[in-house]
Amino acid sequence: MRKRKYIKGIDGLRAIAVIGVILYHLMPQSVSGGFLGVPLFFVISGYLMTDILLFEWESRQKIKISDFYFRRVKRIYPSLIVLFIVTGSVFAFISRKYLLNFKAIIASSLFNVNNFWQIANGFSYFDRFSNESPFTHLWSLSIEGQFYLFWPIILAILLYKVKDYKKINQFILFITGLSAVLMMAFYTPESINRIYYGTDTRLFSVMLGSSLAFLLRTQEERITSLHFGKKLLVFITGLILIIGSFVLFSDNNAFVYRGGMLLFSVIAMIVLGLIVEIEGFSNALTNPIIRWIGSRSYEIYLWQLPVMVVYTDQLKWDGTNALMHGVIQLVIIGILSELTYRLVGRLRRIGSMKELIGLIESLFKKNVPVLVVLVLFLGTFVYGVAVSPSGKMDSAVALQRKLEQNKQAVEQHNKELSQSSEKKSASKTNTSSSEQTSTTETSDSSETNSPSGLSSVQKEKIAKVSLGAVGDSVLLSAAPELQTYFPKSHIDAEVGRQLVDSQEIFEKLNKNKQLGDVVLVVLGTNGSFKESDIDKMMQQIGNRPVFFVNTLVDRPWQASVNDTLAKAAAKYDNAHLIDWKSYAEGHREWFDEDGIHLVPNGGEYFSELVATEVLKVLPN
CB 525: neighbour CB atoms within 10 A? Predict the structure, then answer.
């Protein structure tokens, strides 16, 4: 029987995981793969829970499932409940939008079905604009909770019936492979919510951890016989690959979902196994700071997103002075995590219901100030739950409806434009007359609504420009006004689109000869990108004049996006920067309630700015 002991190095691996997740949310432009910290957590949890159950089986030839559940409840629920009570109390007085669907979030999290709830309601982990929730990250706790609930029962049955560790591990590896195959099979670039949140498509990371608990028992002699130098090389290489993945990969990389995440989990399993087996490797990941982060990784994970969402939104942080704002957020997260860890520490040491009742009685009798604070928080929490809105904000629903209508109108316009260009007119006079009528109507409409007004000659000149526009929901919100200025424009805009995902779009438009004579790029609202991404885009654009519109989003990636666009405009002779950020700052009336998408008047200003800049490069 193997003696089970506390392995300090696992805290170090937990620290790496939670640091990756935090940096992914804090600076996604630099740590674009930090979300892989979650499968690292899954591997660790799978191993630890299975090792605990196997140790109990090896000690007593039985598994007391009720005791396992009680220990898990003590570990998971106290900190989660503290999070809900504090946020429910505070957010009710800051802004109720942070409590959107709060009742459903609490219920689905406590019953470990939050991931399914998010799938059913169409919420996205990667959407930073449409009703962004401070509680989106709780999906992963539900997958772990489901594992804690069902795995002890399944494992107990396997141990009683099969007994052979190797055969049981074969079953585990079969489930692992099936889960990985489901992720690959269900993957679609348009929407990864289903596979990202799904228990079936994420289970392979947890099951690899479970497999490790068996492998360290069945293959112990073989592992021990391996040369230490080889183990050291594998350990160092594995750590480099884990940390490197946080930087090299991104959430929209197809490879991640077509085997990359599985490979990452296998590497995490190997590194974890070496930490468990070799004390020197465990000590390598141990120092006071790492141990502090690792031992409080659960609380840090709980608090990181609420702090970042509210901080960014309240301060309208756009990514400037990143070091200062990043440190402030980390300090706030650290303080809240430490307070929560200490508060629930005594609860975790409780071994029975009798001890729990005794603790509650002592609070009532001896700690009046603590009791007063507790009652105050509970009272405001109840108020927060009562006033929390459900569904989607009316403004978000209205915006979504508007964008859908604009999308339909754009597609109809593109279709008509395509048919018009393919159709051979029998009479050039009729075509010319038709175009003149269209231009005159546009001119009249523009002069009525135009913010400053272009001359009729300028409008006629712009109306003849064949414009290819590629963008996200900001472009989509301004599409009707842009088409008024550029009736020959072909607009390709999608909600949530990022520049790093747009390579295929430009290839397709170029192949179909829909990029036009002038190209407009409105991308950057939803995330940052690298200069190399623009280089790939420019290969498709060629020598056409291209206009990059910088972004005004008050999000941490705004500064990075605008800096990269400015460098691209300076790098390419045919590239030009439209400084929408400077032009639109201070004009809140141009924007919808979210402060990002444009109302018709804002769309008019946006379109005229684009027209004015395009005119500068047109021949006289």
Answer: 27
- Distance CA(150)–CA(110), nearest Å, equals 16
Residue 619 phi, psi dihedral angles, 5° rounding: -65, 145
Under DSSP, the state recorded for 501 is: G
Residue type, 69: Y
Contact criterion met (CB below 8 Å) for 606 and 614: no
d(CA 251, CA 526): 12
Alpha helices in 187-227 (DSSP H): 193-197, 199-218, 220-225
State pLDDT tens for residues 537-548. 999 999 999 999
pLDDT band at 429 (very low <50, low <70, confident <90, very high): very low
> Global pTM?
0.83
- Is the pLDDT score of 40 beyond 90? yes
Torsions phi, psi for 578 (to 5 deg): -100, 115
- Cα(51)–Cα(394) distance, rounded to whole angstroms? 49
CA distances from 34 to 23, 292, 459 (A): 6, 20, 48
- 3 state DSSP class of 296: coil
Are 55 and 334 in contact by the 8 Å Cβ rule? The answer is no
In DSSP terms, which residues pair with 516 in a beta bridge? 467
**From start to end of 482-559, where are the E strands?**
490-493, 518-522, 546-549
Q: Tell me the CA distances in angstroms from 552 to 269, 456, 494, 565, 568, one per residue in order.
A: 42, 30, 18, 13, 18
With contact defined as beta carbons under 8 Å apart, do 300 and 334 qualify?
yes
The span from the first CA to the last CA of the chain, in angstroms, equals: 88
Nearest of 588, 564, 561, 565 to residue 578 by alpha carbon: 565
* Distance, C-alpha 432 to centroid of its chain: 50
Q: What is the pLDDT of residue 419?
A: 72
Amino acid, res. 501: D
Share of the chain above pLDDT 90, in %: 58
Sheet holding 546-549, edge to edge: 490-493, 467-471, 518-522, 546-549, 575-578
- Greatest Cα pair distance, the chain, in angstroms, is 96
Specify whether the CB–CB gap between 120 and 291 falls below 8 A: no
* Paired tokens of 188: 């679609």
Residue 131 DSSP one-character state: T
Tokens of residue 315, six digits = 């301060």
Residue 446: pLDDT band (50, 70, 90) is very low
User: CA-to-CA distance for 619 and 209, rounded, in angstroms?
Assistant: 65
The SS3 of residue 490 is strand
CA pair distance 458, 451, nearest whole angstrom: 15
Q: 549 forms bridges with which residues in the sheet?
A: 578
Please tell me the distance from the alpha carbon of residue 264 to that of residue 238, in angstroms, as a whole number.
9
- Exposure string of 452-467, with b = 16+ CB inside 10 Å and e = fewer, is eebeeebbbbbbebbb
DSSP string computed for 343-403: HHHHHHT--SHHHHHHHHHHHHHH-HHHHHHHHHHHHHHHHHHHH---SS-HHHHHHHHHH
